[in-house]
Amino acid sequence: MNQLNPLQKFFRQPKIFISLPSKGLYYEPGALQGDYSNVPIFAMSGMDEIIMKTPDALFTGEATAKVIESCCPYIKNAKHMPSIDIDALLVAIRIATFGDKMSVNKTCTKCGEENEYEIELGNILEYFSGLKFINTINVFENLIIKIRPLQYEEMNYFSIENFKLQKMLYQTNDIASEEEKQKQVDTIYKNLSELQVQLFLTAIETVQVDNTVVTEKAFIEEWLRNTERESYQQIKQKLEENKAVWDMPPQKVACGHCAAENQISVTLDQSSFFV
Ligand SMILES: [Zn+2]
Predict the structure, then answer these.
(1) What is d(CA 221, CA 155) in angstroms, rounded to the nearest whole number?
(2) pLDDT of residue 12
(3) What are all long-range contacts of 224-232, with beta carbons under 8 Å and residues at least 24 apart?
(4) Residues 36, 81: Cα–Cα separation, whole Å
(5) What is the pLDDT of residue 266?
(6) Angle formed by the axes of helices 152-171 and 178-203, to 10°?
(7) How remote is the CA of residue 104 from the centroid of ligand 1, in Å?
(8) Which helix (H) or strand (E) holds 229?
(9) What is the pTM of this model?
């Protein structure tokens, strides 16, 4: 079948072009092919829509990865892309598929009025395009760590494991024996803190103390496990601050009834993507 497909002119065309917030950094070799500052985004196909509506695939991030690769052909391997580009790409795909406006319902926190707002998704894209990933954290003056964003696959791993542990924690409420309950709660907390160490280790690339740069993961792990509480908290806080910057920016709206300012957090999960 070497001849040109006569249906080709009816294929999807790019709807918008975006610049990736990561500036094309932190991709595994081969995961991104093309100019990061001019990435074509296609609308979702009928197949994409079916994939996005498969609950299990969505939970693991499998569906999102497939749809990103389909609508953004420059991305060759979405699982190995930096997670900081995911939200911007999903917003871009939503714009390419359904347009710039997205309606969101929000009950006023002051008067209880149910309002419907039209969010302009282009503003969110603009927010992301102005960000820069800060990869250097000065924990203390003589202690500097270099971090990288988690890859999408890693991010999903940590959020699923965390979700499972939180669910187990919740289920301990059903345990009748107080002693048994405490035992299980202790184990779950231990696993949660272990998960956090693993997350830190994944994100931290190097640790610099005075003039020595340590890259060996085993040394970094030993240090993390033996460091003082204060440094540990400092790292945790800095990583969380960094993460918050890369979350979807909350949108300010005014209540139609009492004019109070409300904040809407836009999410692009399965339940909101198609609304
Ligand atoms: Zn109100």
Answers:
(1) 19
(2) 86
(3) 224/197, 224/200, 225/197, 231/139, 231/140, 231/143
(4) 12
(5) 86
(6) 170
(7) 15
(8) helix 229-245
(9) 0.89
Ligand 1 center from residue 32 Cα (angstroms) = 45
> What are residue 17's DSSP bridge partners?
40
Q: Which residues of the chain have pLDDT under 50?
A: none
Dihedrals phi, psi of 27, to nearest 5 degrees? -85, 145
Each domain of the chain, given as residue ranges in start order, spans 136-246
Distance 265 CA to ligand 1 centre (A): 17
What is the distance between the alpha carbons of residues 30 and 61, in angstroms, rounded to a whole number? 20
Q: What is the pLDDT of residues 191-230, one digit of tens each?
A: 999 999 999 999 999 999 999 999 999 999 999 999 888 8
CA pair distance 208, 168, nearest whole angstrom:
37
Whether residue 124 contacts residue 248, with contact meaning beta carbons closer than 8 Å, is answered with: yes
Q: pLDDT of 150-183, one tens digit each?
A: 999 999 999 999 999 999 999 999 999 999 999 9
* Ligand 1 midpoint to CA 266 (Å): 19
Cα 222 to ligand 1 centroid, rounded to whole Å: 53
Contact 192, 167 (CB under 8 A): no
